[in-house]
Amino acid sequence: MEGDSSVPAQQPRSGRGLRWVLFANLVIAVDYSLIMPTGSDYVTKDLHMDGIFYGVTIGAFPVGRMCLLMLMGYWSDKRGFRGPFRTTFLLGMIGGLVYGLASGLQFPYFAVLGRFFGGLGATGPYSAWAARTYPPEKRVRIESIQKTAQLAGVVIGPAFNVLFVGMNVDMGWLKLNPNTMAGYFPAMLNAVLFVGFFFGVDEPPRSVRVDTPSQPTKLLFRTGSWVCLVSAFATNLQVTAVDVIFAPLAKQHLGFGDLAVS
Description:
By secondary structure, the chain is an all-alpha fold.
């Protein structure tokens, strides 16, 4: 009817980029879990810090995610996805480099700072991209695939350490060994993602209307978002607590250690 302003929003249409989005989900989990076999030795032997500092280093990653995750979603709602994606990949690169440089520069707090920046970089709005790109009947399946990619990254992340067994390059401030590669390797993966998303991921159509409050806090408290946030915090708290104590206990009581070249 003429003059009727209640025109339904155009349905999202599928675009390129799902494989890169799944890879990004995998990289986030690998970045988180890669340091588990080596982090304890890195902190206590290379950086000469204690177990409490190791716990702080492990916990810095999820704290970083919690600080920036909602803001990245808000930014993507208002300005699109290219800015948030590029920013998170740059933060991931910085985080990995800073973590790896901690031993070469003998500045232990770089390890904590690097993990914090890594967490900031693990906040790409991938679920929002999928929701904006795919029609409603496909979104649940796409989200399930993303969660599967994240779980796969947590499982296989520690196994990537086999790539660095026996690596021992010392160039002063730049040390390449299994401990530092837990930072440098995710930095390289984020660099690959930066390039891949630039050329291989489409921006969803802006014709899809997204109604968001003018302030992120209103979105948090006027919807059920706070419940999801608390649930995610509790889950990450449990996982982080296990990760902090598992590697030292496994080495002390079970004799499990890092791989070594015979």
